[in-house]
Design a protein that fits this description.
alpha+beta; 4-stranded mixed β-sheet; 4-stranded antiparallel β-sheet
Length: 214
């Protein structure tokens, strides 16, 4: 499967974080969010988050994975499946997938913005939370990604699972104004998110994408 002509980036968050993101005008890296306690429901594995704060991004000396805003290259991520299953020992969140939203960006627009603001970015060829991964600092790295794995719905194979979790990492922050749209699971969540956006200056459209969920 060739790479998409206009790749998109997907960041998943609990919807109750959106008002804080809008207020701050940015999505921030975990290294920044450590000082911002109480800003919505935290999902994910605390042990992996801590490790990511130490894991180096090899193409950018001094930059760590946790010092970046992380994106997947597609919806229906492995992490979303773990939130859906709700039985992983390292995840304390047990609210299921319905409150989780996909915040979608255009990849090239994000890269251009980061370059303009002297913020580093990288493409990882596999799971950036693992102890070893390769990264690239140019868009030609997109051709090295396993796009079949990224689109895969069956990721029981270890290699497919690792490749599906490839990430786009942006140093420190990304502005809210670059959000193109938000994908949600149903009409109830669509209405809830639209209420959260009602007073925002930038109001991306909110679409129901049941196929982005388990």
């Amino acid at each position: 499967m060739p790479r998409p002509a206009a790749p998109k980036l997907f960041h998943i968050v609990h919807h109750d974080k959106l008002p804080f993101i809008i207020q701050d005008c940015h999505l921030f890296a975990d290294s920044v969010m450590q000082a911002k306690q109480g800003q919505g429901t935290v999902v994910g594995m605390s042990r992996i988050k801590e490790r990511r704060l130490r894991l180096p991004v090899d193409v950018h000396p001094g930059l760590t994975v946790g010092g970046c805003v992380p994106f997947y290259f597609g919806p229906r991520s492995v992490m979303l499946y773990l939130l859906y299953a709700g039985n992983h020992a390292d995840i304390t969140y047990r609210g299921g997938q319905n409150p989780i939203v996909h915040v979608v960006f255009d990849l090239e627009a994000v890269a251009v913005w980061a370059d303009q603001h002297n913020l580093r970015w990288a493409i990882t060829l596999s799971n950036a939370g693992s102890n070893f991964f390769e990264s690239r600092d140019n868009l030609s790295g997109l051709d090295e990604l396993n796009w079949d794995a990224i689109a895969a719905r069956d990721f029981r194979d270890r290699d497919i699972k690792e490749a599906k979790q490839a990430e786009f990492l942006v140093e420190e922050r990304i502005p809210w104004e670059l959000v193109e749209r938000i994908g949600v699971v149903n009409a109830s969540m669509q209405r809830a998110v639209e209420r959260q956006l009602a007073r925002a200056t930038h109001r991306p459209r909110v679409d129901i994408h049941l196929d982005w969920y388990y």
